[in-house]
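Hi V.,

Quick status before I head out on leave. The structure for the redesign project is tokenized and pasted below; the design run finished overnight.
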């Protein structure tokens, strides 16, 4: 019996008709589809860029323009380098830079070493690290004004805690904020206590990432505590140490809150006058926004140049 023949109506359509070729989607359609798929991400990105443009980039551009302008009776005129010349010939200009550099050096000696030592000590504890981390980070959670006023109370020459301790130890009392030789050191101590928590937690995270085998090998070689820190801890955390040093230098060069609240800004004999406080005086005491912008531009150029050199040297060391 012959097999029945397949009619066109019962034939396999995949065999009977050629495959259809779909035209490629236009580029605009692919972009629109990608935008719809990532609409939320693009929304957050646009919001972040908008915030940076309004609150960061625009003030920087406006400051750059103000540095070469002068506003009088509502009229803005271009004065070229006149604002920079005015700032340069101010007797407080060089004193502010000296005080700022002194604060930066003292803050590096204390504010850079103390958090690292605190992180090493906390890392040695096997139990209770969470409570110790909270204890170290607690000053950061306090409002800066409250912290500064607390230290102003501690520095009081009459009933302050520091002089009470000195009396108990039969040591001479000190005029912490009234002595031009001690005022800047007093500001540095308060600033270190206020800001060490964040750096200590960053250092602690870096320390906990060091393999324990390195310390075991150092112990087998007879290394003590300080040799282990010098030959294992510091080399293993060199990258984070260099980054934190750069960030701390940039932050300390812009110090304002601590000297302003502790010593009124200038301090005894101008010993705590910083560059940022001088900018504040030009803008809000002298109503010379052009000179304030010019001094801020000088500080910006200095920090940008220092950051560029630091990054260049770091790349050369890595290579």
């Amino acid at each position: 019996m012959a097999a029945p023949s397949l009619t066109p109506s019962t034939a396999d359509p995949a065999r009977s008709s050629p495959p259809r070729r779909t035209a490629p989607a236009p580029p605009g359609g692919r972009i629109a589809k990608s935008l719809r798929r990532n609409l939320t991400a693009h929304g957050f990105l646009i919001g972040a860029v908008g915030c940076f443009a309004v609150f960061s980039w625009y003030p920087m551009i406006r400051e750059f323009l103000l540095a070469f302008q002068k506003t009088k009776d509502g009229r803005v005129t271009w004065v070229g380098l006149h604002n920079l010349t005015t700032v340069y010939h101010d007797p407080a200009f060089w004193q502010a830079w000296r005080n700022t550099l002194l604060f930066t050096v003292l803050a590096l000696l204390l504010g850079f070493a103390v958090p690292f030592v605190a992180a090493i000590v906390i890392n040695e504890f096997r139990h209770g690290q969470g409570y110790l981390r909270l204890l170290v980070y607690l000053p950061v959670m306090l409002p800066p004004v409250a912290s500064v006023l607390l230290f102003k109370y501690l520095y009081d020459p009459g009933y302050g805690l520091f002089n009470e301790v000195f009396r108990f130890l039969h040591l001479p009392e000190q005029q912490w904020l009234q002595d031009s030789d001690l005022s800047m050191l007093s500001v540095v101590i308060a600033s270190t206590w206020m800001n060490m928590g964040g750096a200590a937690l960053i250092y602690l995270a870096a320390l906990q990432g060091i393999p324990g085998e390195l310390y075991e090998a150092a112990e087998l070689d007879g290394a003590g505590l300080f040799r282990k820190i010098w030959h294992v801890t510091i080399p293993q955390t060199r990258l984070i140490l260099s980054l934190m040093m750069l960030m701390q230098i940039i932050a300390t060069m812009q110090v304002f809150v601590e000297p302003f609240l502790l010593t009124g800004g200038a301090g005894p004999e101008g010993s705590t006058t910083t560059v940022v406080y001088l900018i504040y005086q030009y803008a809000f005491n002298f109503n010379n926004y052009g000179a304030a912008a010019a001094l801020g531009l000088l500080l910006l150029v200095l920090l940008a140049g220092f950051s560029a050199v630091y990054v260049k040297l770091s790349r050369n060391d890595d290579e």
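Above is the designed sequence. Residues 91-124 form the longest helix (34 residues).

G. will cover questions while I'm gone.

Best,
W.
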